[in-house]
């Protein structure tokens, strides 16, 4: 395949994207499989997964994942909310949760994609405040000037290296490196050529409701509130909330709450010495047996078997 330089024949500009329900909801970059790790961050090279999809990631969206793509070199045709752009590296592409996006890469593409789970992205927003606005806007930033391009590449390469080779303090170092990357991108966003002038589609009311629901889950999941209670806090009926979740996130409101509980359970079983009983109690289960049944139903493994598997894979 040769690098794309024209958009006329590109299937990325599909008018069907106007209907949110027609757009696939992916769990990870180009995949429908579940989030593969208890980490809140995932990093891999762009060629690593793109070549499995013939260099074409079709338009899709994520309910609770944020992408930062660093294109070190090569050409990419990208779609952000129905608007197509062709650009050459070096550049950075930012894709917030719920943004419809797709990519067609040239086969000589080089770079990495960093994916943040919503809890981590929201933590960065809290820490960085206004500088984290870069995570909330679908955008691409050209890295103009050798010094700027080099500094961004060094940060991304450091993140990728640390991600691939876990060591003591890995989580803290990875989060610090991503924070530094976000600060740099925020600075670039003030004056770098970007996608903002193309008028990306504003969030619909449904997306706003979903974002508020996800924020409530993050604040209250350990108490395991009922969906009726959460819907009431949003001034919605539980039926309306479920309809929104199924249309925009491809799962029910209860499934979204359970996925957050499961993610935290995996993290505690992987990164702490808490007993299964302690993990169960911390997540609001009345009995460890209920927690074990919940965990096994969603993963196919008991909490103890999952922990042993994580320990074995770390060696």
TrEMBL record:
Signal peptide: none annotated. Residues 211-309 form the HTH araC/xylS-type domain. Keywords: Activator, DNA-binding, Transcription, Transcription regulation. It holds the Pfam family HTH_18. InterPro entries: AraC-bd (IPR003313), Cupin_HpaA-like_N (IPR047264), Homeodomain-like_sf (IPR009057), HTH-like (IPR037923), HTH_AraC (IPR018060), RmlC-like_jellyroll (IPR014710), Tscrpt_reg_AraC-type_HTH (IPR020449). GO terms for molecular function: DNA-binding transcription factor activity; sequence-specific DNA binding. It comes from the Bacteria. This is Helix-turn-helix domain-containing protein. The lineage of its organism: Bacteria, Pseudomonadati, Pseudomonadota, Gammaproteobacteria, Oceanospirillales.
């Amino acid at each position: 395949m040769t690098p794309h330089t024209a958009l006329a024949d590109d299937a990325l500009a599909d008018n069907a994207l106007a209907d949110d329900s027609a757009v696939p909801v992916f769990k990870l970059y180009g995949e429908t499989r579940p989030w593969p790790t208890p980490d809140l961050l995932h990093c891999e090279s762009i060629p690593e997964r793109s070549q499995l999809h013939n260099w074409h990631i079709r338009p899709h969206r994520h309910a609770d994942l944020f992408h930062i793509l660093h294109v070190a070199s090569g050409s990419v045709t990208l779609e952000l909310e129905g608007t197509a752009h062709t650009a050459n590296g070096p550049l950075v592409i930012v894709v917030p949760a719920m943004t419809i996006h797709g990519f067609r890469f040239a086969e000589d593409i080089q770079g990495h994609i960093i994916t943040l789970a919503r809890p981590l992205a929201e933590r960065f927003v809290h820490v960085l405040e206004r500088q984290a606005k870069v995570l909330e806007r679908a955008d691409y930033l050209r890295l103009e000037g050798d010094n700027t391009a080099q500094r961004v590449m060094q940060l991304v390469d450091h993140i990728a290296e640390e991600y691939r080779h876990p060591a003591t303090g890995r989580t803290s170092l990875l989060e610090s490196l991503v924070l530094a990357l976000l600060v740099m991108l925020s600075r670039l966003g003030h004056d770098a050529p970007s996608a903002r002038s193309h008028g990306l589609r504003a969030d619909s009311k449904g997306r706003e409701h979903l974002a508020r629901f996800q924020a409530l889950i993050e604040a209250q999941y350990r108490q395991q509130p009922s969906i009726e209670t959460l819907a009431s806090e949003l001034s919605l009926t539980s039926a309306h909330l479920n309809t929104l979740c199924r249309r925009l996130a491809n799962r029910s409101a209860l499934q979204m709450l359970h996925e957050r509980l499961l993610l935290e359970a995996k993290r505690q079983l992987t990164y702490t010495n808490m007993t299964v009983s302690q993990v169960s109690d911390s997540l609001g289960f009345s009995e460890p047996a209920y927690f074990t049944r919940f965990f096994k139903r969603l993963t196919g493994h008991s909490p103890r078997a999952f922990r042993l598997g994580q320990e074995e894979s770390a060696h």
